[in-house]
Amino acid sequence: MTDAETAVMPDRTNTSRDHAKRYVRHFLADFAKLDQEYPRTYPRMIVRGEGAYVIDEEGRRILDAGSHLGACQIGHGHPEVADRIHQQVRNIEFIALDAGISHVYAAALGERLAKMVLCDDPVFSFTNSGSESNELAFKIARQYHRRRGQPGRVKIFSRNGSYHGSTLATSAATGAAPFKEGFGPLPEGFIQGAQPSPGRCGHCGFNDACSLACLDDFERLIMAEGSETVAAVIAEPIAIPQAVKVPPPDYFVRLRKFCDDHGILLIIDEVVCGFGRTGRMFGAEHFGVHGDIVTFAKGLTSGYVPMGAVAVARHVEEVFKNAPLLHLNTYAGHPVACAAAMAVLDIMERERLVLHSARMEPILRRELQRLQNAVARVRYLSVIGLLSSVIVDISDRPDPDAVIRRVRNIAYDNGLLARVARDGALLSVHFYPPLVVAEQDIVAGVRALEIALRMI
Ligand code: PMP
Asked: For ligand 1, atom 10, which residue shows the shortest CA distance?
């Protein structure tokens, strides 16, 4: 066997530490490299998955409480998805949607999604990721106004603390500062304003009800910039980067009306909230808000293969009828990704996973409330469906990064793959397992988190 072959095979003659060392040696600095200095094996090498669990090289079963950046909905290792991907590769591995050529798999997926998404009589453009979906949404919004004779409408408004992707334009639209600093100059015309943000928006405290003063600020900012210069507002139905932020019911009703009154398109970013994560198929269903453009990715294929999509309402699509949008994407609507998405949607429906996500919400809340009662540092909890966060005060700790490592490592040693991030003097711990998670998994996972948080 050559070196190249052994490098990608989890061969049994090497220890986990050897594999981790190879990774660290050959990959650009990324999040997987975090925590190397922990006196164990880093990065942890995952070799298999089963439902809500991943299994590492040492055979440990770990609850996947971050669903791998929120992608995994139907659980890991589903044989039906594997079979359908396999079958699709045998039928035809790839067809580019170009020059009079398409395929039945993209047509079937578009038809199915059109019945689900909160977007009026939508048409679709497929992508490979959430970032690409949002990037395309911005291009569509700007072209839409240009074709309607308003070329001055170019600005894209988003909200502080949001995340919309890793490309240059989506970094510019991202409100969470650490993801955009040092990459400039970023594209012009991207502006951020306030959003409901417990303890951070400057209006409401951690456990107060939202007064919507943040939305007053946001609207005032747009008016000050000149609403006639604005192409679109982009918003996640429920933002998660710092904490899971569930806006009050009237937030989106008002934002939708404001956009309509000022001729601004509303882009709903469902990349994390979509496909059952919040106990509804799409996050926007909690607020009954329709997007002019709706973007998604992750849960669409449950992470089995990369795929994203942009839904465009018919009234927006009309302007592209006579001259298509010149936006070429080689792998758009990749047949293997379409097959994976169709299999995932079949499984979600058959196993009633959206309902299951809603039914697990009170159990997750009960367990997290118990954790809050047990750990004095917990400042704020938020739960919707199987999406939750716990905000922990670590302001008395001199080295917050060391605290993160410790929490992550102790959680892992207790069977929990937790997503722990730092937000100033606060720790945000997200708990959002695959939708197939059972009550006892949640109970065990939150206990593991409690052990870790007690040891800060
Ligand atoms: N939008 C939101 C709300 C996201 O959470 C993410 C990814 N975390 C993205 C967009 C970007 O998606 P991707 O990483 O697939 O490009």
From this structure: 164
How far is residue 27's CA from residue 328's CA, in Å, rounded to a whole number?
Answer: 29
d(CA 183, CA 174): 12
Q: Domain 44-74+353-454 classified CATH 3.90.1150.10?
A: yes
- Cα gap 44→57, rounded to integer Å: 8
Equal fold, 44-74+353-454 vs 81-350: no
CATH 3.30.70.1520 is right for the domain spanning 81-350: no
Q: What is the distance between the alpha carbons of residues 198 and 247, in angstroms, rounded to a whole number?
A: 10
Q: How far is the CA of 127 from the centre of ligand 1 (A)?
A: 12
Nearest atom in ligand 1 to 236's CA? 3
Residue 173 to residue 424: CA distance in whole angstroms: 21
Cα 164 to averaged position of ligand 1 atoms, centre (Å): 5
Atom of ligand 1 nearest to the CA of 162: 3
**Residue spans per domain, the chain:** 44-74+353-454, 81-350
Distance 155 CA to ligand 1 centre (A): 21
Each residue's pLDDT tens digit in the chain (456 positions)?
Answer: 344 434 344 444 556 677 777 777 787 767 776 665 555 556 888 999 999 999 998 899 999 999 999 999 999 999 999 999 999 999 999 999 988 999 999 999 999 999 999 999 999 999 999 999 999 999 999 999 999 999 999 999 999 989 999 999 999 999 988 899 899 999 999 999 998 887 777 888 887 888 899 999 999 999 999 999 999 999 999 998 888 989 998 999 999 999 999 999 999 999 999 999 999 999 999 999 999 999 999 999 999 999 999 999 999 999 999 888 999 999 999 999 999 999 999 999 999 999 999 999 999 999 999 999 999 999 999 999 999 999 999 999 998 888 988 899 899 999 999 899 888 889 999 999 999 999 999 999 999 999 999 998
| Closest ligand 1 atom, residue 132 Cα | 16
Pocket test for ligand 1, best of 164, 195, 430 (most atoms within 8 A of CB): 164
Cα(174) to centroid(ligand 1), Å: 10
Q: Cβ neighbours of residue 160 under 8 Å, at least 6 residues apart?
A: 175, 192, 193, 194, 195, 197, 201
Angle, alpha carbons 83-337-4 (nearest 5°):
80
Q: What's the CA gap between 419 and 432, in Å, rounded?
A: 9
What is the atom index within ligand 1 of the atom nearest the CA of 129? Answer: 15
Q: Give distance in angstroms: CA of 294 to centre of ligand 1.
A: 13
Residues with CB under 6 A from ligand 1: 69, 129-131, 134, 163-166, 236, 269, 271-272, 297
> pTM for this structure?
0.94
